[in-house]
C-alpha cells in the first residue's frame, strides 16, 4: 500500500469515528 493510500485510510477511519461520535452525542446528549 502506498503512503497516500495509508493516509486516505487513516482519514476515512477518523471521519467515521467522528461521525459516530457526533451521532451518539445527538442521541444521548445527557452523557456529554
TrEMBL record:
One example GO MF annotation: P-type potassium transmembrane transporter activity
Residue ranges of the TM segments: 6-28
Organism in which the protein naturally occurs: Williamsia herbipolensis
Domain of life according to the entry: Bacteria
UniProt protein name: Potassium-transporting ATPase subunit F
Pfam families the UniProt entry points to: Potass_KdpF (PF09604)
Key words, A-Z: Membrane, Transmembrane, Transmembrane helix
GO CC annotation: plasma membrane
